[in-house]
Each structure stands twice: as structure tokens, then as C-alpha cells.
Amino acid sequence: AVRLFESFTLMKGIVIITLLGVVSSHSWMSCPPSFDTSPSRGGNIVGPCEREGRKKVVTEVQAGDRLKVGWTSNNHAGGYVRLALVPDGQHTVYEHFEKNVLKIVCYGHDERKGRTSYGDCIHPCNARKGCEYMANKYDGNRYDTTIKIPYNLAEGVYILQYMSAMSAHKTFYYSCARLKIKGGVPSLPCKRTGLAPVAYGCMQGTAVPLAKYQENTKMGDFCFSPKGLGDQDDNMSKVPINPECDPRITCQLSVNSKQCMSEDNGMKDIVDSWDPKQQCKGQVKPPPEPTCSDGIKNNGEQMVDCGGPECEKCFEEPTEPADTRIYSKLDYTQKQWEDGNINIRAVVKVSKDANDWRYTMFFTKAVDIRTFWGCKIISHNDFKTIWTFGPQAWTKRIRPGQTLQLGFNGKFEADGEYPECVTKNFRAYDPDTY
What we know:
By secondary structure, the protein is mainly beta. It has 3 helices and 18 strands. The strands form 5 sheets. It has a 5-stranded mixed sheet. Strand 1 and strand 2 (14-23) form a beta hairpin.
């Protein structure tokens, strides 16, 4: 183990360094077992793979199998994981992995309210436990995924590589696992061009953008159908061959091991942290398909049972017909900080007479506006994503050429994602019309 220090920016210009205890630093692949299965090993920034541990582990798979791939959160959140696959012997060269990428997935973060901030969370960060697996392409923020073993690979040993620059880390971390693949048909036509697919809904890291994961890469010439190219994730609901593997490993990796062990998360059931598994009760079956009425934030939803690619919007976007526009210019500026504070300024150049007005802002995530000037609160929706303001007594009647200056201060959940104001709406208000 090594001593881990983390930096937390508490306010602009002030940094406090906090000792988080004696834990192993950063992250590595734990499902399937990596080259080094020691729970106190720490991360590897040299690459393209870590050094061998005390025991050489080979995971046997068949062409077409789904394989659970997971990694320890190690108290970090945000970023991506690039997965690549090459024949054994080619794994000492970075470029071989770059030209044989399987896919890019989310590193993960604790999606529970208030559990992720500053790019960190408390391990295991709501990571998926053993006997569970990612069965839906929109459920990719729980520190694991599954891959389909290609159909066109010659029988032999292959090296699966994990590469990630999680949270605020500026350096990639590498980890590898050995797979013995059988049942492939090398004669299948599997020529591919372009980049590997990227998972939906990832919370980005704060240091390394997605483009760096994709730099100099291409998707490998893999076939995911017995008849040809196919799709890597067309049958994600299929139970992987290793569902019992538990990528979370141990609470000794947590900055708060006492909290980790006290939660109802199954961590106590991991007997051997060198080979972390859960005892599955009966046959593992695919989980129920997520819906927009199951009371769970899944399926790529923005909030519980609404938003995202599958469900209805969580709110209605305000509109502003051109013929009702009463301003010639609206300058909007927004500043936000990692601690969840936000400051907004709106400068409106009036172009038409109005005896009353309303100004509405529509945000992509909840914002709690607490102070404001030049206006007063009229309403906000339950999600605090749509806010409407009206005039103070001295700014109610406006005339062409007049300039209104409005200001707002508020808070948002510091989970690494900043709110974006996608619509600004300034309009005349008539109580007989609205």
C-alpha cells in the first residue's frame, strides 16, 4: 500500500491538502483477474500492462461469450475506460492496443444524490457487486461493463487491456488480463475502419478529454456476429460467463473503510480479496428491462423515470415566439466553480414597450437560485431546472433603448457536471393572456 494524498479545491484560489489514509492509489482491472491480483498493488502508469504478480491467471472464454469487465473505483469518479484486445506477445507495444480497440466505456461515478464531488466518492461508490452485471447500454456508470468475445480470432491466448485517466488525473493508468479464446473462425470477413464506439452518458473526468482516449486509435478488425461484423453490444442482457466476479475487491481500498463495511452493499461477503467473488444464489438471470416507471434512475435517465434517450422529458422547455420578442439583445454570462457555486448575469437591451415582463431560464440540471437582483422570483418547477423572474416595482415598465441588468447567485450539486442554461426567455407579460 502507499500513502494517498488528494487535493480538494474548496474555493477559488484556496487548496487544502488532505491525507486520506493508507490506501492503494488509483485503479486497475479486477474482473477478469489482471496480471497482478494483489489488493494492495496500486495503479500502473508505465503501461502498456502492469508487472506480473505472484500468480499467473488465465480466463478461458469461447467466441461469442459475454465477459464481465470491471475495475475498482478507488474513491474516484468520472472519466472513461478504453478496452483493447491483442494476441499474447503483442502486448508490450502501445500501438498494437491502439489499433485494436474494442470500445470506450464510462469509468463510473456514484449516482446517488450527494455522493460524488470534486471527482471523488467513497469506495465502493455504488459500484455493481458480484452476481450482478451491466445488462443495458444506458446503465454504464457503475464501474463495469461487459464485452462480447469476437468470433474471428484464432485459438490462443490474448491480452485484454484497460486504460483510464479517471477523475482529475492527467496520466493514464494501465492494467491487463489474459484470456484463452477458443472456437473462433479466422476466415470471417471483419475489416473495420473508424473509431471504436463510446458509451452513453459518461461523467467526464476533469483532466483528460475523450479525444485523448481516441488519439491514434481505430476499432480492431473484430466480428461480433458468427456471420460477419455485428455489434459489440447487441445482446448485453446475456449473462456473462463470470457474473460472480466482484470488481470492488475490498473495503480496505476505501478512504472510509468503516462506512464501506457498514453499508448494505455485500462487501462483507467477499471472502478472498485476491480473488474477489460473491456466492450467487441460484442461477444468475438477466435483470428486468428498465422502464420509465420503475422508480429507479436507470435507462440513461436524467432524473428518476424521466429524461434521457428513452423517457419523456422531465420538464417542458419554454418557448419564445419571434413576434412577441421585446428585446434586441440578450447577453448571458455564467460562471461556476467545482464547489457547486454559480453566478449568472443577464443584460437585456429592450426594443419594445411593455408594462410588465418575465425572464425564464431553463437549465440542464437543478440549480438552487438563492439571491438575485434587478428582479424577483415568480416561480420555479419542482426540479429547479426552470426559473421564472419578474420585475421589481421600479423596473416593471420598460421602454425601447432601456437596458436591464439582472443577476443571480445559486448552488448546484457538485458532482463534476456543470449546469447549462439552454434557453433564455425574455417576454412581455399580460395577466389576461398568461
